[in-house]
Amino acid sequence: MGKLFDTHAHYTDERLRGNTDLLDSLFATDISHILTVATDLADTDACIALAGRYENIYASAGIHPHESGEAGDLDAAMASLAEKLNSPKVVALGEIGLDYHYDFSDRETQMRFFCAQMELAAEKNIPVIIHDREAHGDIMNVIQEYKNKVIGIIHCCSASAEQVKEYVKMGWYISFAGVITYKNASKTLESVLATPKDRILVETDCPYLAPVPKRGKTNHSGYMHYTAEKAASLLQMDYDEFCDREVKNAKTLLDIR
Q: Per-residue pLDDT tens for 133-161?
């Protein structure tokens, strides 16, 4: 059975932190690599430390839109983030973006931190991980401003099939989580079908969004095969072929040799 690259996980979350037995079992079975994704500067340090303990775990560095209101001075935060991007196990900047569902941080602050981090990604030539919740228009506008300067992953994609096609034209990769196994996911399934095989990724966003039949449980990478099986079926791909393609896509984007 093919192995997968979990391109978005939160193994520094308190529900998963320190579970070395779980991580050891994942690499022995379903998973080839994991990208553990940061939400703020302190979490970035935790992600880098975790990646340092495992050959096949990589880290991101970034400030989530939820956390932007608590991140303090923008220039100081960007200077600290830039330093953290120099860690050899950091392969992406994120997760960054906009969240208009919860509005835990005000929208102006979210946008300032989003744009500043896109600017930093352009300077550092590093891919980004985009969080987009109910902010599709503003996300698209910012990404278009950085066309040919920044590419990355549309994480846990909820964009329309038409938007997905636009992102792909600009060089972006599209990642799908357990949501595609849910009954009410018809629009997201259209977005899967709009994603070329050489741009598709899968993820857990664990400990959140466990796929059917594990929905409601604490998610982890060992459940990701349910998501991958659904995506492979939609794209009419053999499962092992899908796994090989997905790992290759992730390694290409993240420059992992």
A: 999 999 999 999 999 999 999 999 999 99
